[in-house]
Amino acid sequence: MTDSARKSYDVAVIGAGMAGMAAALFAAQRGLSSILIGSGGGLLFASGLLDLLAVHPVPEGRLWSSPYAALAALAREQPEHPLARIDPSCIRAAFDAFVSALDSAGLNYAPLRERNSDVLTSIGTVKTSFGVPTTMVAGVGALDARPPCLLVDFRGLREFSARQIASTLADRWPKLRYQRIDFPGFEAVPEVNAVHLAMALEIGETRGRALALIRPLLGDARVIGLPAVLGLGRSREVHAAFEAGLGVPVFEIPTMPTSVPGLRLQGALETATSVHGVQRRQASVRALAYDGSTALLDLDVTGGERISARAVVLATGRFSGRGLTADRQGVRETLLGLPVHQPASREAWHQRDFLDPAGHAINRAGLRTDAAFRPLDASGKPAWPGLFAIGSILADQDWMRAKCGSGLAIATAWAALEQVSQQLRGSQANVSAR
Ligand SMILES: Cc1cc2nc3c(=O)[nH]c(=O)nc-3n(C[C@H](O)[C@H](O)[C@H](O)COP(=O)(O)OP(=O)(O)OC[C@H]3O[C@@H](n4cnc5c(N)ncnc54)[C@H](O)[C@@H]3O)c2cc1C
User: Fold this and answer.
1) Which residues on adjacent β-strands are paired with residue 295?
2) Do 277 and 409 belong together in one domain?
3) Can you tell me which atom of ligand 1 is nearest the CA of 130?
4) Suppose 211 and one of 90, 181, 245, 347 were both cysteines; which one would form an S-S bond, judging by CB atoms 3.0 to 4.6 Å apart?
5) Does 392 lie in the same domain as 301?
6) pLDDT above 80 for 278
7) How many angstroms does the Cα of residue 19 sit away from the middle of ligand 1?
């Protein structure tokens, strides 16, 4: 049977967001045959920054310069948080493996150290994150030293205003200037799209014309910031050409969604999983049942399709991913009806103040698991020995406020896959011993 015709796998991963992609990658790296089922998740909207943990405790909004110090505090003070249940050495290994796979797929991140970095956002605020794409790194140093800096944006790119960033930071960064230019070839277009600009800058001639427009504006600028449009699949090459062409460090600033860095991340993860032999099905899983030690997955495709797997990783996300749904009765897990840890009543879902820094209880609802990341049934036991749950569907975390979205996805994928591979190796050993 060819790999593409194969219907039986060691691991089936349901959901192709950050968590599912990471799980499929880690499964394949461990030599397990794996299939990733689902279409793109929240990655399209992601900034490209890989948060590990920046804020703890959430109600205090305390920012940490070391994510590992923050993780140690989390482990002491909030041991039920999924990240608190993973050894930091595993989290380091997970990030190293993830970033190294992205690097091989042509998407480079600055070397991971023990510290978070501050990155400029498209509204002039500062975001604290862990993994920073190489194209954004010069902005980290610039934000710190605040040298003479030129921000350039493009007429018609509605989601990004260099002027707004400069005016927000005017008091703190007096030598920050801005200029707006017409994007070459799009002069007559009233509204331009970041993805189109990124693709256009992969063409040498357009890039040359853009550089020719920016060069005379340089003045005393020692660094230049641009919206994140420096190439789509070839950002390394486009960024290097901008730095060479302008003679100063150049940094990208993430834009509002749809985000070019998010698309790059999705593209690189698709390449990395494919290179490692992960099979991919752009479909939804309609039903999941168990036959002894085998899981049977029915896909929502014309004519139907059934896949079997020895282990299943549920990475179906929260409400936007449709892993969880809410109605008058409460929050439900969509695929299997697994028990969802949630407030006792709807009245307790939200704080009275929508902007309450403590966040809302509904954002911490989700699946509770055992130490091996197996979701629990109503009796508090693993629902099925070979079923694992990872990423944002997990309870007891508020990834947006804690700024730990990618960390939660990548680290829980790693931890679950360690358990999966131990479990499958164990069952293999039992079969061999018989
Ligand atoms: C607006 C936005 C900004 C972000 N910014 C950052 C950031 O700055 N830093 C950072 O670290 N991270 C960021 N992220 C990414 C974030 O880390 C991850 O998206 C988040 O952790 C959720 O990942 P997930 O894989 O658990 O869920 P999701 O991304 O929601 O993926 C779940 C997937 O499962 C699929 N699915 C659900 N049910 C089924 C089914 N039955 N069959 C098949 N597939 C199914 C869904 O369609 C979806 O594709 C951002 C995300 C968003 C949305």
Assistant:
1) 290, 309
2) yes
3) 11
4) 245
5) yes
6) yes
7) 7
